[in-house]
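> forwarded from #structure-qc
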């Protein structure tokens, strides 16, 4: 049977768009299907995405060698993607971690320092006095030490990165379709992909629909993921705050326990023309198991149970933010029990899945997209590409 495409990638998000770019450089007949960002979040009743924002932290310093490697491989290609697409998305503001002095090899910072040694990542250690001298924006616990990755770290603009990937995928010959898929079926010799007004056929399908992967009958059986709400807090900055916070790095500040960390994005200009400093945490306020609840969450202004402690933490760490207008926004993160992304085939030899960002995959999405493309062309991932670690778990 003649099919419409060799491979259809479902999901025009961070991983799917990257997969489309890589795959279009390997084979002909690639399609990327996914809706563009809704113009009006509050009245939209379709699917959403976890990348509708202007900044995501990027860094290699990490307490896990696999994630650090994914980030490093992606960072290696940022400049090339920017140059060939003509779209810039990376700001090398650096990334600061601060927290209680770690014991060697223990806790997030202790493990990350070991990995920094293994991968030879340039990270400067700042003793407490040097930390407060160097980053006077923060009011930190006097015992905290800092770990500063000055180069190849900072933030990416996730909307711009997706746009760059799509531009390059199209330049490589991929067909990009603005549609939401409502069904995927293995028809024995090929796969049928249903969108509202028609069915497309392909030899193979890669499902990269982020937190929406288990909805709309995209997979033969659901992947084991936890789709969890995250509230993001935005401080609108005036001239005074901009002069104070303007040159700060992306930052991750721990509390007494690793779980109590907050992440902070330096001031970034948003499409409304205003400049915001963004802050979020890792509190799990709610988990979703149906599309209606996720839709209602994305149309909301976040969860006060998450917002209030984040505001208190922001003012403790950055007292100069007092008085700035505060707004909040909702997002979702998709967690796997392996704590790694999934990149592998389902029960069907024609339908594979690429998902499970675990709240940290924006920076590494280009390498994850490459792995998705390798999966579609070779049928499996080797050890160097984390085939074992990324094996999907199904329910
Ligand atoms: C608040 C927040 C802060 C974060 N901060 C960071 C950070 O600082 N650094 C970092 O590295 N990572 C961060 N992340 C994680 C990162 O944003 C995600 O890991 C990443 O976006 C996941 O990429 P994805 O392609 O899996 O999903 P997405 O980017 O969400 O893309 C999925 C795509 O699938 C599409 N889709 C869904 N259903 C269908 C369907 N039925 N048919 C067609 N298309 C469909 C959607 O439209 C969407 O475009 C953060 C996440 C959140 C929520």
């Amino acid at each position: 049977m003649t099919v419409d495409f060799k491979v259809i990638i479902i999901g025009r998000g961070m991983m799917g768009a990257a997969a489309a770019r890589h795959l279009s450089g390997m084979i002909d007949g690639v399609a990327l299907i996914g809706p563009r960002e809704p113009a009006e979040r509050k009245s939209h009743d379709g699917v959403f995405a976890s990348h509708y924002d202007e900044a995501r932290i990027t860094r290699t310093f990490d307490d896990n060698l696999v994630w650090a490697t994914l980030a490093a491989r992606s960072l290696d290609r940022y400049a090339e993607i920017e140059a060939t697409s003509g779209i810039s998305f990376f700001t090398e503001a650096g990334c600061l971690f601060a927290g209680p002095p770690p014991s060697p090899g223990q806790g997030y910072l202790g493990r990350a320092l070991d990995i920094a040694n293994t991968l030879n990542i340039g990270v400067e250690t700042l003793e407490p006095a040097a930390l407060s001298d160097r980053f006077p924006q923060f009011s930190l616990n006097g015992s905290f030490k800092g770990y500063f990755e000055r180069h190849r770290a900072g933030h990416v603009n996730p909307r711009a990165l997706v746009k760059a990937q799509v531009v390059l995928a199209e330049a490589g010959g991929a067909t990009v379709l603005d549609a939401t898929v409502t069904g995927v079926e293995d028809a024995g010799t090929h796969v049928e992909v249903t969108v509202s007004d028609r069915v497309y056929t392909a030899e193979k399908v890669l499902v990269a629909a982020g937190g929406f992967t288990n909805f709309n009958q995209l997979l033969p059986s659901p992947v084991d993921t936890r789709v969890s709400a995250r509230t993001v807090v935005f401080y609108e900055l005036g001239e005074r705050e901009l002069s104070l916070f303007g040159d700060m790095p992306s930052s991750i500040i721990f509390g007494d326990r690793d779980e109590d960390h907050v992440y902070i994005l330096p001031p970034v200009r948003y499409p409304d023309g205003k400049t915001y400093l963004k802050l979020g945490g890792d509190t799990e306020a709610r988990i979703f198991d149906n599309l209606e609840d996720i839709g209602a969450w994305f149309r909301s202004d976040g969860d006060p149970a998450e917002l209030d402690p984040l505001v208190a933490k922001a003012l403790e760490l950055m007292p100069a933010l007092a008085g700035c207008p505060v707004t909040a926004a909702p997002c979702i993160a998709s967690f796997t029990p392996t704590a790694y992304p999934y990149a592998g085939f389902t029960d069907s030899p024609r339908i594979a899945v690429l998902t499970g960002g675990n709240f940290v995959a924006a920076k590494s999405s280009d390498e994850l997209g490459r792995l998705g493309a390798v999966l579609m062309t070779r049928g499996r991932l080797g050890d160097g590409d984390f085939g074992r670690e990324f094996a999907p778990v199904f329910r």
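QC bot note: The chain has two domains: 5-52+158-224+337-385, 78-155+226-335. The chain has nine helices and 20 strands.
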